[in-house]
Amino acid sequence: MFELFKTIANAGKSTSKYPFAPYEVAPDFRGKPEYTPEQCIACAACTKACPANALVMTTDAESGARQWQLSLARCIYCGRCEEVCPTKAITLSKEFELAVGQKKDLYQRAVFTLQQCNQCGTPYAPTKAVQYAYDLLLAAGEDKTELERTRSVIEMCPECRRKRNMLGSSNVLIGSLAKERNA
């Protein structure tokens, strides 16, 4: 009997002192997603990669806004959002204590303004995403004067850009020649 008590005493502690002492997590632990809206360009890559549909992005063209929303209740902490985010606006933290008093506290939201087309005025993309594309071209070594000249094209919706390309190319001649032959 004495040997049994001696063995138990030498075994050490089998449990942690959590919640009275902080619990140490593993270095590769995937906890709560931390979102930095200042870094986000609202590209929606995270929403497409999320298998649990915890990330949702809705666009309201009438108000010219795009809303990003994360539901921590749906999140499975897979880390796909962190992998695909081009600006590192989402990172997984070590935080795992997510108890809240109200369900609405499990949601994180951010609202972004949409860039308006300089031709037709319809909103087509987040303003931050358009600026990010411009900055990438600048960082890639594009000439600044050339970039300022093409900025009007960058700030154009896809529909107006397509119309501009069609009017500026030889495709218009091909179309007019086809009309002449049919007449």
CATH fold call: Alpha-Beta Plaits
Please report which band the strand proportion falls in: under 5%, 5-15%, 15-25%, 25-35%, 35-45% or over 45%.
Answer: 15-25%
Question: Which CATH architecture would you pick?
Answer: 2-Layer Sandwich
Radius of gyration: 27 Å
Count of domains = 1
Structure classification? alpha+beta
Regions with little confidence, pLDDT below 50 for 5+ residues: 171-178
The largest sheet is: 4 strands, antiparallel
Number of strands: 6
Order of helical and strand elements = HEHEEHEEEHHHH
Classify the helix fraction into a percent range.
25-40%
Number of helices: 7
Question: What does this protein structure show overall?
Answer:
InterPro entries: 4Fe4S_Fe-S-bd, 4Fe4S_Fe_S_CS, NADH_quinone_OxRdtase_chainI. GO terms for molecular function: 4 iron, 4 sulfur cluster binding; metal ion binding; NADH dehydrogenase activity. This is 4Fe-4S dicluster domain-containing protein. One of its GO terms (cellular component) is membrane. This protein has 183 residues and is α+β, with helices and mostly antiparallel strands. The protein has a single domain (18-182), classed as Alpha-Beta Plaits, CATH 3.30.70.20. The protein is built from 7 helices and 6 strands. It has helices at 2-11, 45-49, 80-84, 127-139, 144-154, 158-167, 171-182; strands spanning 33-35, 55-60, 65-71, 90-92, 107-116, 123-126. Strands 2-3-5-6 form a 4-stranded antiparallel sheet. Strands 1-4 form a two-stranded antiparallel sheet. The protein is elongated, with a radius of gyration of 27 Å.
